[in-house]
Amino acid sequence: MKYLSSYQLQELDLYDFLSFDAEFGKTLQELHALVRRKQYLESISTENNEVNADLCFRGTPIKDLCLDFTLPGYPDYMMKPGDETV
Length: 86
Hints:
Oligomer: single chain
Number of helices: 3
Strand content: 15-25%
Structural class: alpha+beta
Number of domains: 1
């Protein structure tokens, strides 16, 4: 994601969200930690089904969250273009 500053076009990273929406930033950090956990589990597991069954976000299985990777409130703005099927 990019924003326009008075000097240059800069990329926002995960931690920038904390400065303007602390709750959303915290949620993104939790999801990022979950992604890292999934990557780790995949690296040590031979069965992806085991990995996916074990992943929960705040007690809810990931598949039940119906994540769509769009900017909240702006469903036409993809957070990461090209990854619509993730």
